[in-house]
Amino acid sequence: MNKAKIAWITDTTASLSKEFIEQHHIHVIPLHVVINDEFYKETVEITEEEFYERMKNEEGKFQSSQPSISDFVGLYNQLKGEYDFGVAIHASSLLTGTYQSSVMAAEMEDFKLYALDSQTGSYPLSFLIKRGIELAEQGLEISEIISQLNGLLDQTRLYLVPSNLDQLHKSGRVSGSQKILASLFNIKPILSIEEGAAKIKDKVRTEKKVFAWLVNKLKEDLETKSVKKVAIVHANDIKKATELEKVIKETLPGIETEILMLITVAGVHTGVGTIGMSWVCE
Predict the structure, then answer these.
(1) For residue 280, what pLDDT is reported?
(2) The model's pTM
């Protein structure tokens, strides 16, 4: 029996390297960032560094926008002649309509698609794609691959800590009075992406306490689960990311770490200087 030819599809909220994308022929549909009503394809027409530099130095509106359904229609029209079916893993459907557009376009084009709502983004989304490809290379049936990936959805962790509440205030996530109080008392909210949505998990006072909180969350998971790798995500603050990595390595010397730039569609809401930690329990 011939091995099925699988097309792997995702979007730019997955933190995948260009090398990995090219090596595994992954089809990546870009989301858009919108700066003062000008649209840019994320990672294609504007890099994360450029986006955060502009956010830091320019006044105005910074927003995000999902891909158009026609982007997916065009892709699936092309793929149905080349592949047996596709596996699409997208950012949380509660945070963007990308997943819904992908599914709808596949139906319109009569392209057989196994679509997965990752309920997350950034490092955990890239983890799911890599694991899916790994399982396919091991020769597992598609039903088993999807089953195993579904089993990981509630094992993903993504915590983000904005350096201030400016951007959350601009995007309507916090009120003006909350922003002033947070600034006065140096309060840092810790956001968690859970069940597909962003929730405030805690509020702490100093950066040192932020680092301790994040590392403690990881230690809690390590008591009962296996975590092989931890990603430190940052919105153009490599110094802070390196400091957090140092704390992780000192506390948990056996764990592998990776520093990643925070995806811009998340940075639109959390702002420049955001720091975070992410891992997947196995």
Answers:
(1) 98
(2) 0.92
